[in-house]
Design a protein that fits this description.
Layout (H helix, E strand, L loop, with lengths): L8 E4 L5 H11 L3 E7 L22 H6 L3 E6 L4 H11 L4 E4 L5 H4 L4 H7 L4 E6 L14 H8 L19 H24 L3 E6 H7 L2 H10 L20 E4 L4 E4 L4 H7 L11 H6 L1 H12 L4 H10 L4 E3 L3 H5 L2 H6 L2 E6 L3 E6 L23 H7 L4 H9 L3 E2 L4
Helix pairs in contact: 1-7, 6-8, 7-8
Protein name: Carnitine dehydratase
GO molecular function, one term: CoA-transferase activity
InterPro entries: CoA-transferase_III_domain, CoA-Trfase_fam_III, CoA-Trfase_III_dom3_sf, CoA-Trfase_III_dom_1_sf
Length: 400
């Protein structure tokens, strides 16, 4: 079955998280993503892991998470022979993706103008930390650094302790979504006009865009966010919005009528707090009072009572519990693929459902350069030339 992006060919020079997640999303929808890695070492994420452990004894969970449905070719990009080959490939490509520091690939002859010269229809998507010019252009643009600079970390955690980064790479993942958004927009424009273009995405701009309501609030209302000292879930919100204890585990309670909440909790003494200004001004005090009530219940019992009253609530899961949640199971969000070295790898399945062109997992994350020979053969490179590249060390191929 054709997929939505069948026929779209992408040369993917990206590494780590932002670019690879973007190209994986496109690959899930059918794009032919050719992952161009460094000869020998490959993507930097291959050497990073969690818990100081490796999936199957050798593979990085970080890499396995973001690189399914791709083919890998491992090349020495400093070689002039390789440069000539890549430009031959670019003649047939639709999209180039890269997220090196600004100027790094251009110095090697792989900038937008280089690709445009051989293929005016090319769409060149460039991801960076802070943009491609300005006072921070040479700074490392890592996810946690961007969270801090943009204001997310300062808004997170309790006010009587240090601010807390998000427990996931939000800036990188938002950057990936913006890459997809830009690439798909450029592809649609090219369908209408025949013109390619350069798409620039940076983590700082993406993070600010996703803090839009916080910035509009502060810049227009003359107030600064102050983190609460309790489990209130946002520095701009009043009680009861937050995280609460039960006899076993935690629950979240979101925007809900306070009167309904204290009635369900059988705590009429909380009625004295039931107006908007008080719920904000005394939110830590209110949190303590509500938390004292929620601690009387088992978590499942409390959730049942709250949901029956249409209170917005949910359990607080860790990763393992979330993976086994009935709704996650119903949606089929935990998938797997077979990897030649790691064995069965559990992954998060495609998040978007398409009625006519469903996304599927067709390939595991590749080994370094695993598909180099077949990729070059598809582009018309003779077998002896491929062998010469390998002999010279300008291409490495890992056997599955």
């Amino acid at each position: 079955m054709d997929k939505a992006l069948s026929g779209v060919k992408i040369l993917d020079f990206s590494h780590l998280l932002q670019g690879p997640f973007a190209t994986q999303l496109l690959a899930d929808m059918g794009a032919d993503v050719i992952k161009v890695e460094r000869a020998g070492a490959g993507d930097m994420f291959r050497s990073m892991t969690f818990f100081a452990k490796w999936v199957g004894g050798s593979e990085s969970p970080n890499f396995l998470a973001w690189n399914r449905n791709k083919r890998s070719i491992a090349l020495n990009l400093k070689s002039r022979k390789v440069h000539a080959l890549v430009m031959r490939m670019a003649e047939q490509a639709d999209v180039v993706v890269q997220n090196f520091r600004p100027g790094v690939l251009a110095k090697l002859g792989y900038g937008y103008e280089d690709f445009k010269a051989v293929n005016p229809r090319i769409i060149y998507c460039s991801g960076s930390g802070y943009g491609e010019d300005g006072p921070y252009v040479d700074r490392p643009g890592q996810d946690m650094l961007i969270q801090g600079l943009a204001g997310l970390i300062a808004n997170t955690g309790r006010g009587d302790a240090a601010p807390v980064p998000a427990g996931a790479g939000l800036a990188d993942q938002i950057g990936a979504m913006n890459m997809v958004y830009g690439i798909l927009s450029a592809l649609y424009y090219r369908e209408k006009t025949g013109k390619g273009q350069k798409v620039e995405v940076n983590l700082l701009a993406g993070m600010l865009a996703h803090l839009g309501q916080e910035y509009v609030g502060v810049l227009n209302l003359g107030e600064d966010f102050v983190r609460p000292n309790s489990g209130i879930g946002h520095p701009g919100m009043q009680a009861p919005f937050g995280v609460y204890e039960t006899r076993y585990g935690y629950v979240t309670i979101a925007m809900s009528p306070f009167k309904t909440l204290y009635q369900v909790l059988e705590a009429p003494h909380l009625a004295v707090y039931d107006d908007l200004e008080t719920l904000f001004a005394k939110r830590d005090e209110v949190w303590e009072k509500v938390n004292a009530e929620t601690r009387k219940y088992r978590r499942g019992e409390l959730l049942e009572k709250l949901l029956d009253a249409d209170i917005w609530c949910a359990p607080v899961h860790d990763i393992r519990a979330a993976a086994e949640d009935p709704q996650v199971t119903h949606l089929g969000l935990i998938a797997s693929y077979e990897h030649p070295k790691a064995g069965t790898v559990k992954v998060i399945g495609p998040a978007v459902r398409m009625s006519e062109t469903p996304a599927t997992i067709d390939r595991p994350a590749p080994l370094v350069g695993q598909h180099g020979r077949e990729i070059l053969a598809e582009f018309g490179v003779p077998a002896d030339e491929i062998a010469a590249l390998e002999a010279a060390g300008d291409m490495t191929v890992a056997e599955a």
